[in-house]
C-alpha cells in the first residue's frame, strides 16, 4: 500500500526546513477540454515532419507500412487501456513517474522519472537542432544559402517556446491547435490528390495486405512505426490542467492513438502511390529523403515544396513547445516531491503554470544548445543521435510502465476488468518489448556512428534509471520524508 505524508499535522520525521505540503499548494491550474489536450499532445509528434521525412524511411523496410501503422495503433490502444485505467485508479499528476512508482516501488519510480526526463530531454534537443536546420532550408528555398548558422535560428525558436511555457497551458494549447490544424489540412490535401490520382500504377491493395507484415524486416518495420506514436502518453501529465480529467484524459488518449494510426497509414499509402506500389520500396531505399519532396514537385509544383518548408518550421516549433511544457511539468512534479529544489515547485498565482520549472528547463536547454555549438559537431549527426536516444528511451519507458500497470492491478484486483488491467497491457508489453529488443540489436538503424558511440548512447537510458534508483535509496536512508513522497504520494 502507498504510504502517504499526512497534511493535518507536521511529521516528526520531516526536517524543520522542509515542512509538509499539500496537493493544493502546488496544484497546477487550467481548463483545457478534450480538443485542447488532444492538440497539445499531438503537436509533440510533429505530424508533418513525420510524413515529410520519416514515413519514406519506414517504406524502405517494406511496402506494408500502412497496415503496420494500423497494427501499431491497435497495439498502442491496448497499452492505453491499461494506462488510462491507472489514471483513474491513481488520480494524481506525474504520469509515468507516478504509475511506475505505484507498480514497481519508489526506487524504480524515481528511476522511471529520470528516464522520462532524459527521454524527453533528448527529444527536445533533437527538435531544437532540426528546427534550426529547417529554418536554414526555408531561407535557402527562397533566397539561396543562409548567411546565418543553424544554431541562431534554433536559439530564437527555443526562446519563443521558453516564453510561451511560462504562461497558462491554454495559451500554448491555442498556438499548438492552430499549427496542428494547418499541418493536418495540408497533408490531407496531399493524400486526397494522390489517392484520387492513383499515381503511375493506379490504386493498389498491396500496401494494406497483412501478409506484407510477414517479412524478415518485420521487427524494424514495427520499430519505426511505434516510434512515431510518441506523445499520446503525455495526456496524463496535464491532469491538474484539464476539465473533468477522469473523462478528458482517456478520451484524448484514445483519440490521439486513433488519429495517429489513421493519419500516418493514409499518408504512407498516398506516398507509396506517388511512385507506384511496385517501385515504392526500391525508391525509398535509394532516396528516402527525396521521396516526399519529389512527390510534391511532380503533383503540386515548386510552390508546394516552399509551402511545406514553411510549415515544417512551424511543425518543429510546435513539437518543441509541447516538449518544453512536458519537461516543465515533470520538473514540477519532482520539485513538489522534494527530489529537485522545492523552489521550482512554485505555481504562478495568475497563470496557474509551473513558471519556475519552465524557466529552469529553458535555461538548461539553452546551456545544452551552447554545448552543442561549442562541440562543433555536424548538426545532422547531432539531431539524429539525440533523436535515436529519445526513440530508444521511450520504448524502454513504455515497457516499464506496462509492467508497472500489470503488477499494480494484480495487487489491486478489485479495480478494473482483467481485460483492461492484465490482458491488454500484457499484449502491448509483448509488442513494445519486441520493438525494444529489435532496437537493442539494431542501434545503428537509429544512430549512425562507430560501435563505441552506439554502446554509449544505448547505455544512457539505463544509466538514467540506475541513477534514479540510487538517488531514491539515498533518500530512503537520509531523508525518509522525501523518500515517502516519491511519485506525488501526497494526499
Number of helices: 17
Here the CATH topology equals Amino acid/polyamine transporter I
Portion of residues in beta strands equals: under 5%
Write down the secondary-structure element order.
Answer: HHHHHHHHHHHHHHHHH
CATH superfamily: Amino acid/polyamine transporter I
State the share of residues found in helices, binned by percent. Answer: over 70%
Tell me the radius of gyration.
Answer: 22 Å
Q: Give the CA-based shape.
A: globular
Q: Detail the poorly predicted runs.
A: 1-23
In whole angstroms, how far apart are the ends? 14 Å
Architecture (CATH level 2) name:
Up-down Bundle
Furnish the topology, listing elements before pairings.
Layout (H helix, E strand, L loop, with lengths): L33 H11 L2 H7 L1 H5 L5 H25 L6 H9 L1 H38 L6 H17 L2 H29 L20 H10 L17 H31 L4 H20 L2 H35 L18 H21 L3 H33 L6 H24 L9 H28 L1 H6 L6
